[in-house]
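Design job #97: recover the sequence.
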């Protein structure tokens, strides 16, 4: 007779996950489920499906070899959703209790909360202690604050964990932030950048690739070549490879974009962190061991993991479910079809989307300042944009995707997460990348058919949303320039934008 049934979800593949803390090998069992509804609720990239299923199967195999008793329900043999599959297994093994770590997504938590009543079994939900900040701690931090900002959260976390803090409680090196040094574009003759470590698919992964080809052929993205890590050991090698080959230059080129370099100096570790193949504490521990790395790279990287990643999760659980329903700018346009194909004349979009189709990866600035910026200034419906981001990236899970897209990128939350929308014209893209030199559009032109669409859409966005944004002190320069603009010029901007938006609707 089974006493505790420990359910391990696809993004909980950590050997010390909290649901296993009191596991007794002679009495308890682990249940892992591949279910169709989770694989199909958005148009997940095929590589993401391979990553998740293969990592789950490797995890199960590894735990089995360590003496854990595992029930593993494979796609095609399992019921459609978690609840049905769990009910099916409970009927067979009759556990006394279900134990599960707090899920990453609100939607899944709501499903879990129904189990006790539906299955008539007690359910214990334990804290996901892989994060640096608990949901309760984050809530406490928000209390009494007029506005929430990442920077002050990050200072609090640095002090709490004593990371890069001197004995007087001040930041080591005298600064909290090295952003000013971290805004370089890639020079023309920059040497080739070492690519992320590529892992050869083993028998399990090859089998999963064949299954995805058969069952999910219509899903987004290229299936092969598949090179992601699918085990803890491989993910650790990817971490070591990043630290050895790219970390030192991570800071300075963090914001750069380049059409020949999809990964630049980024870590490409989010997909492993988000499913538990790597742990945030393990990653920071390894990075902090390195004494000879540039301070702007170390600080810049720590800021992403200890600051942004934790802040984003905090915002998600603090504001859901209302968060996903807001639409501050009342954006109504449909997501253009080229988001799914990359088939557009705008070279920056074509490149960022094309790379996404191929790799299930784009780095932060491509997501924020190219595809995200376009969606913002073209007034695309937040729900459609969020669904796209949730589908196309290997690291996409709602807790991290939604605040980044809905809040940081689209400002659809009206400023809960960030202090201003990240709208930018072609000038910014040209400064930070080499996309414009090969584009059909002219980045220097402000009007007319061959003018860069980012140029007029940018001003059109501020014209349309003037009332909502003009009092924002961070947008003072934008609105003082807008005030100086002639009526005729404003009309031209509106016409060019209208024509362009009609044209892309037909695509
Ligand atoms: C519109 C949009 C959607 C996004 N969707 C996701 C998503 O679904 N999943 C996801 O993990 N990240 C998302 N991000 C954040 C960020 O773009 C990715 O974490 C990053 O690009 C992953 O690549 P990397 O591992 O090479 O990151 P690096 O640039 O090497 O950064 C190091 C690590 O810091 C963390 N990190 C950095 N920035 C953020 C951030 N803003 N939020 C959370 N963690 C961060 C990641 O774990 C990342 O692996 C999104 C950003 C935007 C603008
Ligand atoms: S000209 Fe405009 S559309 Fe073309 S690549 Fe540059 S920013 Fe993108």
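Job complete. Output follows.
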């Amino acid at each position: 007779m089974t006493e505790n049934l420990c359910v391990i979800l696809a993004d909980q593949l950590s050997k010390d996950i909290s649901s296993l803390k009191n596991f007794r090998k002679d009495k308890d069992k682990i249940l892992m489920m591949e279910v169709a509804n989770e694989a199909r609720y958005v148009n997940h990239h095929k590589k993401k499906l391979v990553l998740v299923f293969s990592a789950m199967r490797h995890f199960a195999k590894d735990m089995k070899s360590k003496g854990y008793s595992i029930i593993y329900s494979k796609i095609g043999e399992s019921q459609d959703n978690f609840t049905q599959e769990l009910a099916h297994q409970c009927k067979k093994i009759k556990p006394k209790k279900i134990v599960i770590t707090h899920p990453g997504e609100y939607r899944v938590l709501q499903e879990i909360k129904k189990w006790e009543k539906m299955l008539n079994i007690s359910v214990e939900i334990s804290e996901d202690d892989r994060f640096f900040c608990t949901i309760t701690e984050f809530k406490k931090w928000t209390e009494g604050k007029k506005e929430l900002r990442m920077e002050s959260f990050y200072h609090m976390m640095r002090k709490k964990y004593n990371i890069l803090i001197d004995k007087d409680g001040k930041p080591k090196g005298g600064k909290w932030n090295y952003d000013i040094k971290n805004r370089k574009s890639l020079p023309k003759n920059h040497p080739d950048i070492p690519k992320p470590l590529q892992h050869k698919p083993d028998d399990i992964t090859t089998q999963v690739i064949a299954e995805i080809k058969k069952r999910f052929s219509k899903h987004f993205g290229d299936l092969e070549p598949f090179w992601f890590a699918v085990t803890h050991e491989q993910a650790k090698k990817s971490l070591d490879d990043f630290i050895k080959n790219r970390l030192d230059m991570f800071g300075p080129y963090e914001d750069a974009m380049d059409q020949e370099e999809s990964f630049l100096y980024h870590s490409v570790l989010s997909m492993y962190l988000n499913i538990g193949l790597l742990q945030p504490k393990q990653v920071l521990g390894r990075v902090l061991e390195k004494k000879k790395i540039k301070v702007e790279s170390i600080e810049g990287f720590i800021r992403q993991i200890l600051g942004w990643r934790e802040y984003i999760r905090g915002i998600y659980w603090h504001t859901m479910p209302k968060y996903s329903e807001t639409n501050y700018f009342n954006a109504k346009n449909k997501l253009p079809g080229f988001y799914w194909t990359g088939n557009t004349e705008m070279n920056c979009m074509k490149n960022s989307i094309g790379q996404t189709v191929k790799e299930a990866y784009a780095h932060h600035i491509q997501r924020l300042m190219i595809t995200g910026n376009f969606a913002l200034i073209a007034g695309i419906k937040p729900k459609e944009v969020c669904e796209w981001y949730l589908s196309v990236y290997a690291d996409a899970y709602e807790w991290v995707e939604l605040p980044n897209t809905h809040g940081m990128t689209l400002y659809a939350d009206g400023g809960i997460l960030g202090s201003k929308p990240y709208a930018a014209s072609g000038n910014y893209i040209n400064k930070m990348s080499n996309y414009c030199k090969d584009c059909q559009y002219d980045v220097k032109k402000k009007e007319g058919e061959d003018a860069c669409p980012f140029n007029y859409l940018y001003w059109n966005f501020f014209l349309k949303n003037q009332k909502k944004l003009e009092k924002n002190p961070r947008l003072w320069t934008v609105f003082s320039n807008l005030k100086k603009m002639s009526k005729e010029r404003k009309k031209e901007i509106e016409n060019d934008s209208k024509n362009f938006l009609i044209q892309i609707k037909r695509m």
